[in-house]
Amino acid sequence: MSNSKKIHNSKICDITDFFVAHPEAKYLDAQDVITDLLDSAKHISFATWNCFDSDKKLTVSDEVVASLVYEVRSKLEMIEKILPMAFQSEGV
């Protein structure tokens, strides 16, 4: 079946709504995921910065910048969801 014929559930198409922690995940796993998400967000923000020339004029399509900004936002929202788990150390 092609993608165009599949039923699309727009309620779960956002990465932050789709995210579910693994049942065996621990606080250290959450810390690792947050570190990776932050690193990725930093790289994306640097790429976004490079979409402008020295005169602060856009050098790529505005859709590209919008997509990059959305990616950073999605990563930050995932971090927000995972952050409480990162501080739930065992034995506390």
Describe this structure in words.
Helices cover 57% and strands 0% of the residues. The chain has 92 residues and is mainly alpha-helical. The protein has a domain at 25-86.
Topology summary:
Layout: H1 15-18, H2 27-49, H3 62-86
Overall number of strands:
0
Taking the sheet with the most strands, its summary is: none
Classification by helices and strands:
mainly alpha
User: Which residues sit in consecutive blocks of at least 5 with pLDDT less than 50?
Assistant: none
Average pLDDT metric: 84
How many helices? The count is 3
- Report how far apart the termini are: 49 Å
Radius of gyration: 17 Å
Keywords for this entry:
single chain, mainly alpha
Short note summarizing the structure:
Helices cover 57% and strands 0% of the residues. The chain is mainly alpha-helical and 92 residues long.
